[in-house]
Amino acid sequence: MLEVAGLAKTYPGGDQVLCGVSLTVKATEVVFVIGPSGAGKSTLIRCINRLVEPDAGSVRLDGVEITRLTGADLRRARRHMAMIFQEFNLVERLTVMENVLSGRLGYVGLWRAWRRRFPAEDVELAFETLARVGLAGFENKRADELSGGQRQRVGIARALVQRPKILLVDEPTSSLDPKTSEAVMALITRLAAEEQIPALINIHDVPLARQFAQRILGLNQGVFVFEGTPEDLTPAVLDLIYAGAGEELTSALGGR
Fold it and tell me: Which architecture does CATH list for 1-80+165-180+197-256?
């Protein structure tokens, strides 16, 4: 279980992005966070795994206080928090297999990682995971030869081979066309269910959140203004979540 309490972040320029937010993501639960640009969605995800340092608050994963960890302890904890990025974050000149195996870097020694000498079981796991995300036979292709949807599938495979305790997903469909976006989101939620991994997913696409979420949180100006099911996401609630966002609401609704 992920437990976040009182998380706050103000950037050096004085912008307070998170204002003491709290949330829980239970075992096997898929929770979506929606809200206008600048609401704090990406900062929330990055504070949870401490890619961005929060100013206050606590993050617990299965009882471990993440915000108090340093050094090797923090690196070990991050093994259990797999990230799927908006811009894929692949090494373009490396092969698909090499990018996927980078998800195992936290489990092998520095020398073996530098030489790309992974245990046979890790390589087997990578092959199996590539097949599960629909990329069997792509292992020797370079990342820069792939389409956007294929690149995101590589990112999903990389996250899964970490054997994480939670998936943290930051706008995974923003660079993809609508058909590919739906396929990618279906893949993420299906694999999370199969692996029984909880997921916290930021997304700008309200119809996709309605389609795939078990629970939705609405973030505006660094605070949660809504928590409920997809069925609770009425036009009035959307107006509340996207208050002052103007065209952002129309964009989130897919132009409707």
Answer: 3-Layer(aba) Sandwich (3.40)
